[in-house]
Each structure stands twice: as structure tokens, then as C-alpha cells.
């Protein structure tokens, strides 16, 4: 875990809200000089706190209005292929995110398609129609609201025993 001082925490919060902020605007919002702000942002990248800046794309606007979360459980013989399976999913154009899970299911795959027929084909061609997949369960997404992450220091973890 990386410790963040109040300025770094403020920079992270601002960039989570809008990763496209110009450096001088970001600096003004957190109360530091632009040159200092640039150095701090670079340091946050180098320390792995910020891993990237991404565009949030409206999938419906690009012809993929149907989104779903697909729970996937692999067969016992495929347990050694977890990483390869996850990587193969990330290469498919329908896949937005792949989550590796603890619990009964192995993965949660977030997909966007043009409609229900394309979603059905995706599940059949890439999941339930393959020998390594034991089970899938598809849940349609009606709406997605982005939460705001907890502020640095506001979440207390108990000490490890």
C-alpha cells in the first residue's frame, strides 16, 4: 500500500473525477504550483497509484447498447488455464472488463453487444461452447452508475495478527 499525503490524495480524487484536467487547472484545484503538480502526477504513475487514464465510452453510441455481466465457472481440469482464459477474453471485441473472482465462480466478464442475438452468439461461441467452461450465468445491465472511491485514510483496516 502506498501512503498518500493530503496533496497527492487530492490529486488522485480530482483525476478520478476528470482524468482530462489540464495540469494548470489540476494544480489550482489542489493549491500547488503547476510544476509541482506535474512532478507529483508523474510520481503517482511511477509508484503505481495511477495506472492509466481512460476514456469512458458510451457503448450505445457506438452501436453496442446491450451490456451484460457473465459469471463463468471453469471445469476442474481447466484450473491450470485460469490466466490463459482471462487473457483470451481480453482479446475479444465485446469484452470490456474481466474480473477474476474468489468464490463459486471464477470470472465475471463484462461485455457490450449490439443486441440479444449477438450476446447469445458470444456466450455460445466463446464460453458455453468451449470445453473448459462448466457454467455461465448472464445478467443484463440496465444502468451503470459510477461510485466515488473512499478518500485516503477514511477506510481503516484492522492490524494484521
Can you describe this structure?
There is one protein chain. This protein is α+β, with helices and mostly antiparallel strands. Helices cover 34% and strands 19% of the residues. It has a four-stranded antiparallel beta sheet, covered by helices on one side. The relative contact order is 0.15. It comes from Nocardioides daeguensis. It holds the Pfam family AsnC_trans_reg.
CATH superfamily of the largest domain: Lrp/AsnC effector binding domain/regulation of amino acid metabolism (RAM) domain
CATH fold field value of the largest domain: Alpha-Beta Plaits
Which class of the largest domain in CATH terms?
Alpha Beta
Q: How many domains would you count in the coordinates?
A: 2
Which strand order do you get reading across the main beta sheet? 2-3-1-4
Which stretches are low in confidence, meaning pLDDT under 50 for 5 or more residues running? 153-158
Instruction: List the helices and strands in order.
Output: HHHEHEEHE
Return the CATH architecture of the largest domain: 2-Layer Sandwich
Pfam families: AsnC_trans_reg (PF01037), HTH_24 (PF13412)
InterPro entries: AsnC-type_HTH_dom (IPR000485), Dimeric_a/b-barrel (IPR011008), Tscrpt_reg_AsnC-like (IPR019888), Tscrpt_reg_AsnC/Lrp_C (IPR019887), WH-like_DNA-bd_sf (IPR036388), WH_DNA-bd_sf (IPR036390)
Domain HTH asnC-type: 4-65
Protein name: Lrp/AsnC family transcriptional regulator
Amino acid at each position: 500500500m502506498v501512503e498518500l499525503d493530503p496533496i497527492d490524495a487530492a490529486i488522485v480524487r480530482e483525476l478520478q473525477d476528470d482524468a482530462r484536467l489540464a495540469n494548470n487547472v489540476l494544480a489550482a484545484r489542489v493549491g500547488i504550483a503547476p510544476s509541482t503538480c506535474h512532478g507529483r502526477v508523474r510520481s503517482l504513475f511511477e509508484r503505481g497509484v495511477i495506472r492509466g487514464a481512460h476514456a469512458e465510452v458510451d457503448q450505445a453510441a457506438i452501436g453496442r447498447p446491450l451490456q451484460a455481466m457473465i459469471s463463468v465457472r471453469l471445469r476442474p481440469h481447466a484450473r491450470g488455464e485460469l490466466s490463459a482464459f482471462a487473457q483470451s477474453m481480453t482479446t475479444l471485441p465485446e469484452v470490456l472488463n474481466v474480473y477474476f473472482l474468489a468464490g463459486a465462480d471464477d470470472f465475471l466478464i463484462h461485455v457490450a453487444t449490439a443486441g440479444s442475438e449477438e450476446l447469445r452468439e458470444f456466450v455460445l461461441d466463446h464460453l458455453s461452447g468451449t470445453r473448459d467452461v462448466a457454467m455461465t450465468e448472464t445478467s443484463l445491465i440496465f444502468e451503470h452508475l459510477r461510485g466515488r472511491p473512499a478518500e485516503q485514510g477514511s477506510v481503516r483496516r484492522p492490524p494484521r495478527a
